[in-house]
Design brief:
- The structure holds two protein chains of two kinds.
- Chain A is an alpha/beta fold.
- Chain A is built from eight helices and eleven strands.
- Helix content of chain A is 56%, strand content 17%.
- Chain A has a four-stranded mixed β-sheet. In chain A, strands 2-3-6-9 form a four-stranded mixed β-sheet.
- In chain A, β2 and β3 form a beta hairpin.
- By secondary structure, chain B is mostly helical.
- Chain B is built from ten helices and no strands.
- Chain B has helices spanning 4-13, 17-39, 42-58, 69-87, 106-109, 117-122, 125-136, 139-150, 155-162, 166-184.
- The relative contact order of chain B is 0.11.
- Classes of the chains: A alpha/beta, B mainly alpha.
- Chains A and B meet through α1, α3 and α4 of A and α2, α3, α6, α7 and α8 of B.
């Protein structure tokens, strides 16, 4: 057996972790290797000395009253207890709830942020917005917040009006959408496509979503 | 069935000061001895004990009852000791004799150690050599040696306290032992 293997075995022996058969092997090796035997004895004594030195210094200094006396122990105890914050009233408060349910908290905060931004978006833009094909837009008349499709005029594409009144006297071939406004139709009016009025937040949201989705689809 | 400590922890969490005082009396001496062996200084050892209990008290609600209470409290205390040792000036040898203080080495300059010369004499020469050798042990070996030989913990327990694998603990015990053997060679 090599000496470096033997040294590892010596340490394992001192840790009380050397298997029986290795103990025999180590013994055999030390019979023929005086340096390992010396090493073993030195380490064994180091171990014993360290152990006693660690323990004895403390008990001795206490025994003769020069070190840690009963009074010193009591003094430290009272010092520690004085440092303690007064008994906390532990009502399971909001913060505790938050700490215990991180997932729910995150979901709630997310929802709150989403709703806030959604309503902010809903509230903003009280000005009139008209969307449609360029040539169609030239044929309509805007009077204040009223969008007039004059009689006899034919709008070929879709027409979207936000925050305004639509006064349809002519023909709209595409879809007509009125958001946050009202629709007036003259008897001459003709809407070929779909005609929708959106006034509630949820309808508006649905409109935005379905438009996005159909926009993605094409 | 939960341990006594876990039971006391529950009580003091409800605001029972007496229960916490009980925990303090259970562990104060053990922690003090450990800190004293780590730091070699009474005042600092007391400070570490105090800090440990403050932390314990503050974090009682986070104590995991699956973990042994002693493992938890020793983990906090060893970390505080290691922090203090690391904050000390590095590469300052206690054995070096400063030129302006004839005959005084670093040991005589450690403040607030109440050991009197008489009690110093009571320590055998061998023990003094061992204590001096211990003082020069690198922190990572010192920690495992103190837990092993003072607290008489198993390698597994030391691993739990320090949060490291048993194999690492074993290596450190072996190296620490070899370190001390070399320092003690002339008295062995």
């Amino acid at each position: 057996m090599e000496c470096n293997v033997a040294i590892v075995m010596i340490h394992d022996y001192l840790d009380d972790e050397l298997p029986r058969e290795d103990k025999i092997k180590l013994k055999e090796h030390m019979k023929i290797c005086p340096s390992c035997e010396k090493r073993f004895e030195q380490l064994q004594r180091t171990e014993a000395f360290t152990h006693t030195a660690m323990i004895s210094g403390l008990s001795e200094s206490r025994g003769d009253g020069k070190g840690r006396s009963v009074q010193a122990v009591a003094a430290l105890t009272s010092r520690i207890m004085q440092q303690m914050p007064p008994a906390r009233k532990r009502k399971p408060g909001f913060v505790d709830w938050v700490r215990r349910h991180p997932g729910l908290t995150a979901a709630a905060v997310f929802l709150l942020v989403m709703l806030t931004s959604f309503f902010v978006m809903w509230d903003q833009g009280t000005e009139l917005i008209v969307k449609g094909a360029g040539e169609d837009l030239q044929r309509i008349i805007i009077d204040g917040d009223t969008v007039i499709v004059p009689p006899g005029v034919q709008i070929h594409g879709d027409l979207t009006i936000e925050n305004g009144t639509a006064d349809i006297q002519g023909e709209v071939m595409g879809n007509l959408t009125v958001i946050d406004g009202s629709l007036k139709m003259a008897s001459t009016a003709k809407i070929i496509g779909e005609n929708r009025e959106i006034n509630q937040a949820l309808d508006w949201l649905w409109y935005k979503v379905s438009k996005t989705v159909s926009g993605l689809a094409y | 069935m939960i341990s006594i400590e876990a039971h006391l922890a529950r009580l003091s969490l409800k605001g029972d000061q007496q229960a916490f005082a009980e925990i303090v009396s259970l562990y104060q001496e053990k922690l003090y001895h450990m800190a004293y062996r780590m730091l070699g200084n009474r005042q600092e050892a007391e400070d570490v004990v105090q800090d440990t209990f403050l932390r314990i008290h503050k974090n009682l609600d986070r104590y995991d009852e699956k973990l042994k209470f002693s493992t938890w409290i020793y983990r906090i205390a060893t970390n505080l000791c290691i922090d203090r040792l690391r904050k000390r000036k590095p590469s300052y040898s206690l054995d070096a004799q400063p030129t302006d203080h004839e005959g005084l080495d670093g040991y005589s300059m450690i403040p607030s150690d109440n050991r009197t010369p008489e009690s110093e004499v009571l320590l055998s020469e061998t023990q003094q050599i061992i204590h001096q050798a211990m003082a020069t042990l690198p922190v990572k070996y010192k920690t495992v040696m103190v837990l092993r030989y003072l607290q008489e913990m198993s390698l597994q327990e030391i691993g739990d306290v320090l949060g490291m694998p048993v194999t690492t603990v074993k290596t450190r015990v072996h190296r620490g032992r070899e370190f001390l053997r070399k320092k003690l060679e002339r008295v062995l």
